[in-house]
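Example 9 (inverse folding). The structure is encoded as follows.
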């Protein structure tokens, strides 16, 4: 693989050649319908392939195996999407959510301790949302009381991705119940093997059970596991939430353009309607596919602008909210409308493909999955509030 700092063309050809050799051509077919355990094993293997190639965390500093510039990260995302590579789902929380917070807010000792573990294959989960604190995350009630050199944690988290497989959890907890809700929160790294932790998988409507509930009952966490200052966890959390977007959404957008819309066009060309004609011959179907493609081009244009702003150091919080809404609603629209095109026969496919996210080639499954994108990472309603307040200057 080319190193950071070379030419863009060299990097693109290098990633493309690597993908041709390492992305299994029939991985979707082989993974369809496998058990949760087998799906996790496959994702661990794929994470190892990315790690060995230096592609697991290209956005990290060079000292930690990254060092690729923003334009170089764009090329890597584009080429992996073009190759139809598996998503880095199992390690996404660690690499893209937790690591930026550790790099910006943790001590040097904590960085060495946790980042090296991620590079060695440790999986992380993120204990943010609670039953009554989802979109309004600052309303969280999980408590952490100081007891000598430990915090004692009690409470519940929900929608915690990959909690069963995780070695560590980055959790937001309330350490000062008397402070205002944004100021009494701390960020703790919790050992998932600690006594007092119960993990309950949640089976999603589209099949997999990688979401979980977490219950903390008198869980002791060393004070040395706190990231940042006590009661300053909200600032740490904002770094992790911002890190979920930008290149991550670019990767997903390229997959939507190439696999989602591309697969819909290919299937419409072969799918026979009840009158014997092909779906692609229906003007309404062609119009729908053309509209989705045009919107995907607009989305990519918005992404290019945001990436330019990131390079310049500009605030992209409002733009990232626009892109989150645009992507989520385009994905939902495409999967809903193409499910309608296929009709009842489109619901008779096979079991879901947990390791592919929404890219299962089973449109009904992907349509059901798409509802989660309207909620996860900030609901569309909350994102519209952010846009109104931060970009349009509207009152709260």
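The amino acid assigned to each position is listed next.
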């Amino acid at each position: 693989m080319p190193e950071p700092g070379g030419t863009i063309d060299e990097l693109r050809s290098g990633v493309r050649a690597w993908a041709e050799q390492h992305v299994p051509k029939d991985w979707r077919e082989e993974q369809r319908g496998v058990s949760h355990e087998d799906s996790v094993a496959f994702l661990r293997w794929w994470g190892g392939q990315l790690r060995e190639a230096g592609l697991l965390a290209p956005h990290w500093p060079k000292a930690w195996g990254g060092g690729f510039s923003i334009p170089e990260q764009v090329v890597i995302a584009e080429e992996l999407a073009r190759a139809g590579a598996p998503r880095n789902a199992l390690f996404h929380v660690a690499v893209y959510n937790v690591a930026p917070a550790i790099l910006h807010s943790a001590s040097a000792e904590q960085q060495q301790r946790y980042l090296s573990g991620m590079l060695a294959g440790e999986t992380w989960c993120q204990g943010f949302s609670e039953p009554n604190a989802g979109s309004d995350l600052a309303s969280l009630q999980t408590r952490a009381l100081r007891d000598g050199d430990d915090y004692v944690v009690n409470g519940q988290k929900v929608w915690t991705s990959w909690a069963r497989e995780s070695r560590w959890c980055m959790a937001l907890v309330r350490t000062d119940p008397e402070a205002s809700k944004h100021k009494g929160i701390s960020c703790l790294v919790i050992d998932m093997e600690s006594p007092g932790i119960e993990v309950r998988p949640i089976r999603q409507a589209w099949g997999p059970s990688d979401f979980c509930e977490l219950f903390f009952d008198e869980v002791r966490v060393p004070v040395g596991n706190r990231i940042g200052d006590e009661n300053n966890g909200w600032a740490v959390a904002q770094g992790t939430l911002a890190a979920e977007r930008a290149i991550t959404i670019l990767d997903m957008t390229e997959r939507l353009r190439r696999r989602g819309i591309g697969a819909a066009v290919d299937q419409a060309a072969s799918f026979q309607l009840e009158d014997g004609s092909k779906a692609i011959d229906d003007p309404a179907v062609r119009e729908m596919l053309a509209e989705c493609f045009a919107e995907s081009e607009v989305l990519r244009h918005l992404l290019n602008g945001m990436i330019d702003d990131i390079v310049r150091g500009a605030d992209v919080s409002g733009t990232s909210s626009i892109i989150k809404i645009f992507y989520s609603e385009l994905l939902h629209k495409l999967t809903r409308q193409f499910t309608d095109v296929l009709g009842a026969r489109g619901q008779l496919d096979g079991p879901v493909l947990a390791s592919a996210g929404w890219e299962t080639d089973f449109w009904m499954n992907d349509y059901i999955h798409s509802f989660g994108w309207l909620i996860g990472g900030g609901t569309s309603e909350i994102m519209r509030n952010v846009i109104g307040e931060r970009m349009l200057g509207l009152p709260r």
